[in-house]
């Protein structure tokens, strides 16, 4: 394809792309330019049971919480929820039907999130781990993803949320 034909294709696609961008922005911002009301509740670990239930419908998922749960800074709460959501999504895509386990552990320094799976597939062979790493690091946390010595794989995020900085309800 020559340069002229490429330019013609771009010119023809421009109005479609512009319209799609505009429609997307209107959904996010609303017609008056202000943020639109979200369709559902904000992501939070208080809704973790519902998230797990969504995935457990097609894949066995166990979960448990260690330590004393407490209110977290909003950014850490959302990051933890999204890390779990993205890890489960990647696992279901990469290793459908395999058993998964989610573990949260609260300690005085913060929260550790772990998602484990059995089988050889590592979730997020595409964009998962870099996105998960970025989410953990955005709140000052650390991230690890890789195989487990006993088999399977592990995604682990350590998110800072010192007890003395806990948000009050």
TrEMBL record:
Class of the enzyme per the UniProt entry, highest EC level: transferase
Kinase recorded as keyword: yes
Species, as recorded: Micromonospora fulviviridis
Signal peptide: none
Protein name: histidine kinase
EC number of the protein: 2.7.13.3
Domain of life: Bacteria
SUPFAM superfamilies: ATPase domain of HSP90 chaperone/DNA topoisomerase II/histidine kinase (SSF55874)
The entry's keywords: Kinase, Transferase, Two-component regulatory system
Catalysed conversion reaction: ATP + protein L-histidine = ADP + protein N-phospho-L-histidine
């Amino acid at each position: 394809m020559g340069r002229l034909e490429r330019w013609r294709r771009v010119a023809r696609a421009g109005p479609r792309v512009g319209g799609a961008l505009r429609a997307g922005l209107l959904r996010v911002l609303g017609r008056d330019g202000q943020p639109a009301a979200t369709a559902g509740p904000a992501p939070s670990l208080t809704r973790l049971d519902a998230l797990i239930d969504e995935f457990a419908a097609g894949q066995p998922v166990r979960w448990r919480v260690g330590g004393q749960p407490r209110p977290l800074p909003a950014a850490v709460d959302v990051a933890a929820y999204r890390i779990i959501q993205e890890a489960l999504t990647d696992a279901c895509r990469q290793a459908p039907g395999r058993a998964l386990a989610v573990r949260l552990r609260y300690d005085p320094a913060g929260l550790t999130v772990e998602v484990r799976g059995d089988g050889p597939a590592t979730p997020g062979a595409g964009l998962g781990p870099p996105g998960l790493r970025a989410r953990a690091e955005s709140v000052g946390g650390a991230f690890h993803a890789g195989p487990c010595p006993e088999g399977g794989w592990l995604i682990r995020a350590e998110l800072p949320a010192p007890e003395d900085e806990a948000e009050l309800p």
